[in-house]
Each structure stands twice: as structure tokens, then as C-alpha cells.
Amino acid sequence: MPTVTVYNLTGEKVEELFLKEEIFNREVNSHILHQMVLGFQARQRVGTASTKDRSEVRGGGRKPFRQKGTGRARQGTRTSPLMRKGGVIFGPGPRTYQPKINKKVKKLAMKMALSARWQGDQLMVLDHFNLDEIKTKKFSLIMDHLQMKKTLIITDQENQNLEKSARNVYGVKVLRVDGLNVYDILRYDRLVLLKPSIPIIEEALGQ
Question: Can you give the pTM of this predicted structure?
């Protein structure tokens, strides 16, 4: 059974914690993780580009000019793509770029990402991260003392002092446990879990 050391903010060892084998020590399949990362990035794309085709352009109805005698090519409507301010041929429309990934694969990928961090000795557990005030300098000093650079911190609940103290620190991101995702786990070099968030993760992924 995988174990992890729980530290406090001064870097002292507090206890040893047992983790669930099926969540934190699985065989990692890079293809599944790659599929999830691509899916996450695709969901960030905004598919709102839109043009009007000839049926959506305002106008039309009567023929713009007579069929013969003008020297111009014959036209039946002003909404034709050949006319100025007419419709667009094969233009883009609203769409979603989100690929279809079933729930089992999503859950499996999350377990693999957590396992990759534990197996790579890149998983750290803190007993708490409570700050008395919103102070970026104080937060940075703690991070330097714990030798944490590019780090993702997962909290079990809302922690305004921590979240606001960390938001301007380069390479650090604070997420609540309900926002945990594969992309951010793999993007940052180190994953820091607050101890109370672990039972929540194990319950969500153990179902």
C-alpha cells in the first residue's frame, strides 16, 4: 500500500499516511493521459465563430435587376454569395471542439495522473495551509522554505487567504478539490494535497 509523509508548514514531519492502492499506485498509460490533455485543451477553445449564409442574410425577395440587357451576369437575389454583402459560402458556424470521452476513462485518467505524481516522488501532503492574512510575501517565504517551485496546491474547501496570496505567484496554482483535473496535475512539476482533501479524492474516484 502506498504511503506518504505528511508535513507542516515548517517542513517538519507530522505523520505517515496510507493511500489507496487503486488510486495512487496504478500502472500509467500515457496514451490515456494524452487523450485527456488534448480533450481539456480542446474544451478551452471558443467555438463562437459564425457567418451568415445566403438564407440568413437580410434582403432578397425580388430580383435585383432585369435578366437581360444590362451587360451584367444574371442574378436572382441580393443574398447570393456572388453579390456584395451577400451570404458566405461554407463559412464557419458555432460549434464545440470537445471530444467525447466516457466517464470511466476520465476517472481512470485521474487515477493515473495521481499515480504518476506519487510514483515520481512529486506528491507532497501538508496537514494544513492556513494563513492569518492575505500576504503574498508570507506565502512566497513558505514556498521557498518547502522548496516548492512549479506547484499545484489542492485544498479541501474555500481558502480565501491562501487563494488570494498565491494568485500573483508565478508557477503556483491553488485549486479546490472539486476542480481537480488531469491537465493541471501533469502541467505542474509538483502536486501538493492538503490532508483533508485526500478522503474526498478517494471517495470520488473509488466509486
Answer: 0.79
103-106 CB contacts, 8 Å cutoff, 24+ apart = 105/32, 105/35, 105/36, 106/36
| Domain positions in the chain | 3-44+100-205, 46-96
- Residue 67 confidence (pLDDT) above 80: yes
pLDDT at 14 (0 to 100): 87
Summarize pLDDT for 21-66 with one digit per residue, the tens: 899 988 999 999 999 999 999 988 888 999 999 989 988 888 999 9
Long-range contacts of range 170-173, CB-CB < 8 Å, 24 or more positions apart?
A: 172/143, 172/148
Which CATH number applies to 3-44+100-205: 3.40.1370.10, 1.25.40.10, 2.120.10.70, 3.40.640.10?
Answer: 3.40.1370.10
- Residue 82 sits at the vertex; the CA angle it makes with 77 and 83, to the nearest 5 degrees, is 60
Query: Which of 136, 146, 132, 134 has the alpha carbon at shortest distance from 8?
Result: 146
For the chain, the residue count is: 207
User: CB of 57 within 8 A of CB of 87?
Assistant: yes
